[in-house]
Amino acid sequence: MAPTTRKSVPKDRFPTLFATLKTQTYHDPSTRGPGSHTIRTIAWNPTGHLIATGSSDRTLRIWNPEKPQVKNSTDLRGHTGSIERVAWNPTKEAELASVSSDGTCRLWDVRSKTCIATIPLGGEGLTVAWASDGSLALVGRKDDFLVPIYLSPDSPPTAGNALRQPLQTNQTLFNPVGSPTTLLLTTGDGCVKVCSWPPVPPITSATVTDYSPNHSHRAVSHSRSSTPAPQGSSPSLQLLHTLHAHTSACVSLALSPTSRYLAIGGSDALISLYDTHDWICRRTLSSLSGSVKSVSFSWDGSYVIGGSDEGTGFDIAHVETGETVARIETTAPAPCLSWHPNGKYWIAYSGDSGGLKIVGAAGGGI
User: Fold this and answer.
1) Cis, bond preceding 201 (omega within 30 deg of 0)
2) Please, are residues 331 and 315 in contact by the beta-carbon 8 Å criterion?
3) Separation CA 53–CA 312 (nearest Å)
4) Residue 203's CB: how many other CB atoms inside 10 A?
5) 144-183 pLDDT tens trace
6) CB 115 within 8 A of CB 78
7) DSSP β-bridge partners for residue 75
8) pLDDT on residue 127
9) Rounded Cα gap, residues 199 and 204, in angstroms
10) pTM for this prediction
């Protein structure tokens, strides 16, 4: 790839420089009928050298962003249902996890173009999140069970006990910073649950002080009492905090690269930005017209975007001020989008005709 640009662009210069970026289209000829090739998920690998797309027509493709011709891409075949989510192992630039409505999670070595493991989920797959050390992929099912898949260099990947969630769970995300490891979960009642990981035996009583639904006050106490769980009880997640983020379902999550900010997209068309130091909502972004299906931070954490399945176009907002600094116009809704992870202000998104598009891949000044 071309040399990586690593200097952050300040807010006052960003609109002018970003406007120089040119958009590249990546057309996939594997569509299985009109309208069938809806891209449902996009993910860059850790270095930004590759990008994966998963579609409703079962197409799972790996693209080289600097070689848009389909002959330079890799078609990974095996799923028999729509691809719901793809995610790269954060410690291995060529290992990809994909989950599908066919009830499986597949692990791929994209260098050899082979599926290295197929793990039955016991239900239709919806989401997948990697632990920061690559030892675990946590899969969410459409029936709101979480299935941990443990990876070891000495044995095949194995699925642990499924964890039932009491509410609709749309996305999960591990926070790589801090101890103990925490897991963030969106819920259908407008909250984000912050839980400790790994799961623990259930407790018979607990008191957890939640954060104010008006985003403006911190909880002043936090207590928890417990007695030993009955023998044979299943493990469960220990709740640490509850963020009352939205008036309707929370749909998407993203942490800034330093984990300083958490972006939460809701079905109320809003994006809330939380400071993870004190779990206070610092600002709310309201430029979208429908449910926020994806959120993403730029590589330096300075800018944030959100994608919706309603309306056209999306804004780029400055994280520290909430100001809109640029806008990408689209001809159709763009529900899936993602910033380049490693020093480039490139944005990959779906929705427009032709397939995947990447702003910046065709050239520009930053």
Assistant:
1) no
2) no
3) 20
4) 16
5) 999 999 999 989 999 999 999 999 999 999 998 877 789 9
6) yes
7) 61
8) 97
9) 15
10) 0.89
